[in-house]
Design brief:
Helix content is about 60%, strand content about 5%. A 3-stranded antiparallel β-sheet has the order 1-3-2. Strand 2 and strand 3 form a beta hairpin. Helix 2 crosses helix 3 and helix 7 crosses helix 9. The longest helix is centred in the last third of the chain and has 25 residues. The protein is globular, with a radius of gyration of 19 Å. Keywords: DNA-binding, Plasmid, Transcription, Transcription regulation. GO terms for molecular function: DNA binding; DNA-binding transcription factor activity. InterPro entries: GntR_C, TF_FadR/GntR_C, Tscrpt_reg_HTH_GntR, WH-like_DNA-bd_sf, WH_DNA-bd_sf.
């Protein structure tokens, strides 16, 4: 198996375990490691050119974040996916981020508003490459910059909620939901105008309209769920 050279992170000098953690998390979220795949420590160490101890540390950390399943006597696995699980993630995210956005609007500051405007501007000006445009046999397109700015945008909306615990839980839910978004990306984004959705949330937020802002935010998440459900539902056979 060809080993991968892990990218260097500019912001900080990482330990080997942290480097493996970031690379493994990326591959799980993006679907490079399929749901249900058994994560053998020796294979993971070879895949990321790392020692077995850093791999164990990374797997334990991801297990605590629910991105890896750990089963006694069986080892580590990529968590399965299901419509029921995604519904649960989306519904919980609607509750949690709806409250966080409401509190952020009530605690509004100029610095918070400026951060939202900047995050939205950068996201809207970042192209996204659809999986539908990928040639057969070619790797999926690199949307890492869009993904990063998409996370920054949603984090900026709720950053002024005043609760570190609420923000951490929101970050965890966002990451869990991203696994499903990658699966549905080929169908989700070409059929919706995500920039307009983001702008509608920003407009209501900056206007101080809590009800509309929360409804727009939750509506965006529920639309993604609806499209994913359509993709995953078994197709009925029409008899002639």
């Amino acid at each position: 198996m060809t080993t991968r050279i892990l990218p260097k992170r500019k912001a900080e000098k990482e330990t080997a375990a942290t480097t493996v953690y970031h690379a493994l998390k990326r591959d799980i979220v993006r679907g490079a490691l399929e749901p249900g795949h058994k994560l053998l420590i020796d294979q993971i160490a070879e895949r990321y050119a790392a020692g077995t101890n850093p791999v164990r540390e990374a797997l334990n950390r991801l297990s605590s974040e629910r991105l890896v399943d750990r089963e006694d006597q069986r080892g580590f696995f990529v968590p399965p996916i299901s419509i029921e699980d995604f519904r649960d993630i989306v519904q919980t995210r609607c509750w949690v981020e709806g409250k966080a956005l409401e509190e952020s609007i009530r605690n509004r500051t100029e610095a918070w508003e400026d951060a939202i405007i900047l995050a939205n501007h950068r996201l809207n000006n970042t192209p996204i490459h659809f999986y539908a445009h990928t040639e057969p046999g070619m790797p999926p397109p690199d949307n890492s910059l869009w993904e990063e700015r998409h996370r920054i945008y949603h984090r900026a909306l709720i950053a002024n909620c005043g609760s570190a615990h609420l923000l951490r839980f929101s970050d965890e839910l966002m990451l869990l939901g991203e696994r499903y978004r990658f699966i549905s990306m080929v169908n989700t984004y070409p059929r919706r105008k995500s920039n307009e959705e983001h702008q509608a949330i920003v407009d209501a937020t900056l206007a101080g309209d809590v009800e509309t802002a929360v409804a727009e935010l939750q509506g965006q998440y529920l639309l993604t769920l609806q499209i994913y459900e359509e993709i995953m539902q078994p197709k009925s056979t029409v008899l002639p």
